[in-house]
Amino acid sequence: MTVLQRYVTKQIVGAVLFVLVAFMSLFAFFDMMQELPEVGRNGYALQHAFMYVLLGLPDDVYLTLPIAALIGTIYALAQLAAKSEFTIMRASGLSTRSATWMLTKIGLGFVAMTFVFGEFFGPMASEFAEKLKLQAQGSALSQEFRSGLWTKDVIREKGLQGDPIGSRFLNVKEVTPDGTLKGLKIYEFDQEMHLNALVTARQAEYQGRNVWRLSEVAETRFFTGAPDISAAVQSTTAPTRDLISEITPDILTVLFADPDRMSALDLAAYTRHLEENNQSTARYKIAFWKKLTYPFAVLVMMALALPFAYLHFRAGGVSLKIFIGIMIGVSFQLLNSLFSHLGLLNTWPALATAVLPSMAFLLVAMGALWWVERH
Questions:
Q1: Termini Cα distance of the chain
Q2: Distance CA 367, CA 375 (A)
Q3: What is the pLDDT of residues 74-103, one digit of tens each?
Q4: Which portions of this protein are annotated as coiled-coil regions (predicted)?
Q5: Which one is the CATH code of 149-250: 2.60.40, 1.10.3470, 3.30.1360, 2.60.450?
Q6: Which residues, 6 or more positions from 180, have their beta carbon under 8 angstroms from its beta carbon?
Q7: pTM given for the model
Q8: Could you give the count of Cα atoms lying within 13 Å of 34 in the half-sphere of its Cβ?
Q9: Which of 23, 30, 19 is nearest to 53 (CA)?
Q10: In the chain, which segments carry CATH 2.60.450?
Q11: In whole angstroms, what is the distance from residue 97 CA to residue 118 CA?
């Protein structure tokens, strides 16, 4: 790494981290104000609210890093331009291509940081925060649904393997934060969607390896073509029973989670589960591709910041350039969110929906660089 590369890297990294800390402090303040009305209700204390806000910060870091990279880079480059340091760099042979490559090498570190927060720290912290809040309030995940939670599963010949032989619909009254299901009803159908069995259980606890342990089980089976009604319907009870299902606590948690706060790995697994059950996957596919492509928005934002270094100080103060950077960052987030909804409504390809906002801003950055270099 050259002396120039180290110097510019130090200036930009310091500015980006400063902006990021400022954003996190602001977000934490507003989140805390939002949580305060719930403090004191059902055992939800001030320390729980503080931990809930603190655990939400990794996801905020993931969402804010591209904007922080834009504003921090604009500030650092504007300072270099104000002190004529960037002019000296250009006079010493720093071309636009070399400056772009210099920013790209700095940006790759922020891309990796964004990916780590979006794939690991953010989803894990958000999930833990929601469980902490529910446990403190003594509530369950599905209490807000009047008919309970519904999900679908495939019945196979050999548990998780073999050809499908039917479908299974599960209705759960409550899902506790530790993943226990309460008030469980299971409807099993054959390939022709004839009801084969109705199973009820007081609760179900996950044992691992796709096995659920049902408690206080009552099962009613229906047989078509039976000679009389007594043979057509048979009822049994059991204190416990194991159920092999593709449904896991992680999949159930996804039903309550915001797809944008999930990891790409969880999104891929849940999308595959929905496809196997012939359910809509558009929303989760868009979220999956956004999760993979969003970190590279850092490079686009830093490319948008580079033209500001070519503007002379008299053309606009540092504060004006930072304000323009904030507006660009807000516009990017709004456009990114808008395209997600438009792609879902118009059934656009998920990959195109995820990358179009970044590509549009990249074209703007290339056009701005061409303009400042010509003028």
A1: 31
A2: 12
A3: 999 888 888 888 888 888 888 888 888 999
A4: none
A5: 2.60.450
A6: 203, 204, 205, 206
A7: 0.80
A8: 9
A9: 30
A10: 149-250
A11: 30
